[in-house]
């Protein structure tokens, strides 16, 4: 699914009105009706008081449509106009007129704190104060109203976007944003829903298709692509019936140091489970027995050093290399990195201490083969590109870094973002159970295993991040958040593949007749 900016959504709105030959009022009716249907389906006529707070723009107009439809269906509705200025939008005014015809209980005009109504914790609040047209931070009594609503325990449903949140620019005042329990957003989710500083305001959301012009949506380059099951299904490369282990490549994992051989075990296992034909693992001598015992399928090559990696020499041409997990920061290890980046001109997956070593020895950056994949968590990213002002500044900095060095950068987190030049892909799978040691090592193994099977680096990254998160979700389903360990994510890669490939059952025509 594509994520568009607010500017693009206004264009989509315009294109829809022109090409479908409808009025913008009709489009608003469509949008409001969808919200009403969502509520009506769940409330089934329940007489719970519904307080609808409408701004004076089109988001407020949507609120008025919802209010009118709810009133017409006999609900207990109180509509308020948050009268922050006299510049009401055309569609707001049209719907203001219509709601006045539908009820004797006219909307209550709010002009100051004195007008804040009493709301019970069991009531419902609909937030239609500001939508994507927010152009400055709410202040004064409007900010106080937002705080007043947030203090109340009533269920808060935001229309399009929680009021006070900018859809694709930085948060200015976190005290001035509605803390919505649920958001119903039109046509596409907004970028703010997925970034660490703002995602908490949008804990649950549904996307309502309001039929914006398909041609515009298809032909417009989005701000970002959201990755979930349908996209992952498209990226999957089916296994060849006549394939042999050579077809799926020979991955090399370079990982581990004394006390951190587990990192090598985890990434090797993940590379196998994701489907690499062969995996060789390069470890310091102390890792030999551990690897051979824990993963008999792996071939093990050792460094001349006992406790760390100093010189990576292998006697085959790997189809992909995953490097860095648990390797430490020994000087000799930095030299080994330098040398292997120069010797092997294939895309690498670069993780953990390899990233830290690069951050401390920036000359290494120039040696990394093009299209390699970097997998930093926020701490590693900060060391690599420096501090950022906010989430948007971070994205701009990473885009620049990715473009300059020709690298795929995976910003790991609750919503992992894959950056390749100007392109952003946002993953939707995964859960807090995955915040556990070694889950990043598993991800590096997954992406290395995909590269070795011939997925190109961007695809391996996007698909790998999705399937790793999906395996984590399946592990969560089996054991809850707390108990998940990195090994459980790897064990569930199998289920994640099965889930991805699951086809709806086709009815047998002779069902029941035999
Ligand atoms: N695009 C689509 O496809 C569709 C869009 N639809 C709906 O339209 C919504 C967008 O509507 P919109 O453009 O009228 O803007 P909206 O969010 O109501 O706010 C603008 C108003 O707020 C004001 N204002 C802003 N900031 C303020 C502040 N801090 N403090 C005080 N005032 C502030 C601003 O005032 P001004 O800056 O002019 O003083 C202006 O009056 C969108 O989210 C969706 O719900 C659907 O109906 C159909 C399809
Ligand atoms: N709250 C969360 N929601 C979804 N995924 C998460 C969450 N926390 C961590 N993860 C995922 O788990 C992995 C953690 O990686 P990392 O921090 O490198 O772990 P480690 O260094 O311990 O191996 C990343 O892929 C990240 O996206
Ligand atoms: K809103």
From TrEMBL:
Residues holding (6S)-NADPHX: 58-62, 160, 263, 326, 377, 441
UniProt-annotated binding residues for K(+): 59, 127, 163
Matches recorded under SUPFAM superfamilies: Ribokinase-like (SSF53613), YjeF N-terminal domain-like (SSF64153)
Known catalytic reactions: (6R)-NADHX = (6S)-NADHX; (6R)-NADPHX = (6S)-NADPHX; (6S)-NADHX + ADP = AMP + phosphate + NADH + H(+); (6S)-NADPHX + ADP = AMP + phosphate + NADPH + H(+)
A molecular function (GO) term: NAD(P)HX epimerase activity
GO biological process: metabolite repair; nicotinamide nucleotide metabolic process
InterPro entries registered for this protein in UniProt: CARKD, Nnr, Ribokinase-like, YjeF_N_dom, YjeF_N_dom_sf
UniProt xrefs under Gene3D superfamilies: 3.40.1190.20, YjeF N-terminal domain
UniProt remark on cofactor binding: Binds 1 potassium ion per subunit.
EC number: 4.2.1.136, 5.1.99.6
Residue positions binding AMP: 412-416, 440
Pfam families per record: Carb_kinase, YjeF_N
UniProt keyword NADP, yes or no: yes
Swiss-Prot/TrEMBL cofactor(s): K(+); Mg(2+)
Domain YjeF C-terminal intervals: 228-500
Keywords associated with the record: ATP-binding, Isomerase, Lyase, Metal-binding, Multifunctional enzyme, NAD, NADP, Nucleotide-binding, Potassium
Boundaries of every YjeF N-terminal domain copy: 9-218
Membership in a protein family: In the C-terminal section; belongs to the NnrD/CARKD family.
Function text: Catalyzes the epimerization of the S- and R-forms of NAD(P)HX, a damaged form of NAD(P)H that is a result of enzymatic or heat-dependent hydration. This is a prerequisite for the S-specific NAD(P)H-hydrate dehydratase to allow the repair of both epimers of NAD(P)HX. Catalyzes the dehydration of the S-form of NAD(P)HX at the expense of ADP, which is converted to AMP. Together with NAD(P)HX epimerase, which catalyzes the epimerization of the S- and R-forms, the enzyme allows the repair of both epimers of NAD(P)HX, a damaged form of NAD(P)H that is a result of enzymatic or heat-dependent hydration.
Quaternary structure note: Homotetramer.
The protein's name: Bifunctional NAD(P)H-hydrate repair enzyme
């Amino acid at each position: 699914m594509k994520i568009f900016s607010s500017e693009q959504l206004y264009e989509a709105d315009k294109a829809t009105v022109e090409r479908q030959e409808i009025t913008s009022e009709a489009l608003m009716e469509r949008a409001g009706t969808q919200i009403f249907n969502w509520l009506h389906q769940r409330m089934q006529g329940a007489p719970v008081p519904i307080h609808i707070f409408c701004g004076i723009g089109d988001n407020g107009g949507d609120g008025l449509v919802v209010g009118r439809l709810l009133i017409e269906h006999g609900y207990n509705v109180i509509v308020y106009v948050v009268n922050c200025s006299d510049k009401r939008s055309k569609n707001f005014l049209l719907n203001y007129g219509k709601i006045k015809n539908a009820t004797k209980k006219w909307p209550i005009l709010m002009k100051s704190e004195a007008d804040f109504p009493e709301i019970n914790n069991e009531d419902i609040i609909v937030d239609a104060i500001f939508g994507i047209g927010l152009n400055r931070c709410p202040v004064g009594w409007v900010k106080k109203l937002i705080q007043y609503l947030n203090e109340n325990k009533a269920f808060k449903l935001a229309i399009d976007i929680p009021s006070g949140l900018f859809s694709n620019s930085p948060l200015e005042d976190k005290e001035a944003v509605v803390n919505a329990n649920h958001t119903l957003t039109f046509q596409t989710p907004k970028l703010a829903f997925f970034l660490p500083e703002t995602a908490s305001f949008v804990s649950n959301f549904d996307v309502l298709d309001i039929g914006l012009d398909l041609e515009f949506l298809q032909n417009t380059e989005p701000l970002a692509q959201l990755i979930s099951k349908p996209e992952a299904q498209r990226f999957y490369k089916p296994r060849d019936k006549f394939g042999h282990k050579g077809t799926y490549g020979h991955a090399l994992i370079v990982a581990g140091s004394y006390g951190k051989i587990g990192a090598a075990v985890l990434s090797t296992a993940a590379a196998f489970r994701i489907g690499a034909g062969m995996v060789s693992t390069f470890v310091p001598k102390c890792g030999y027995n551990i690897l051979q015992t824990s993963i008999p399928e792996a071939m093990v090559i050792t460094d001349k050093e006992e406790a760390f990696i100093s010189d990576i020499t292998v006697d085959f041409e790997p189809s992909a290399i995953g490097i860095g997990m648990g390797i430490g920061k020994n000087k000799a290890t930095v030299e080994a990195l330098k040398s292997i980046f120069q010797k092997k001109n294939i895309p690498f997956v670069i993780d953990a201490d390899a990233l830290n070593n690069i951050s401390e020895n920036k000359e290494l950056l120039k040696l990394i083969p093009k299209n390699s994949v970097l997998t930093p968590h926020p701490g590693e990213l900060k060391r690599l590109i420096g501090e950022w002002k906010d989430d948007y500044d971070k994205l701009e900095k990473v885009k620049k870094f990715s473009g300059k060095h020709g690298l795929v950068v995976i910003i790991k987190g609750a919503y992992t973002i894959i950056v390749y030049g100007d392109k952003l892909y946002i993953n939707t799978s995964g859960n807090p159970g995955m915040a556990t040691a070694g889950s990043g090592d598993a991800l590096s193994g997954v992406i290395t295993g995909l590269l070795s099977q011939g997925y190109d680096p961007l695809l391996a990254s996007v698909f790998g991040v999705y399937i790793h998160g999906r395996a984590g979700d399946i592990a969560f389903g089996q054991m809850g958040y707390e108990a998940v360990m990195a090994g459980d994510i790897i064990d569930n890669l199998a289920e994640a593949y099965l889930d991805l490939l699951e086809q709806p059952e086709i009815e047998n025509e002779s069902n029941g007749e035999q």
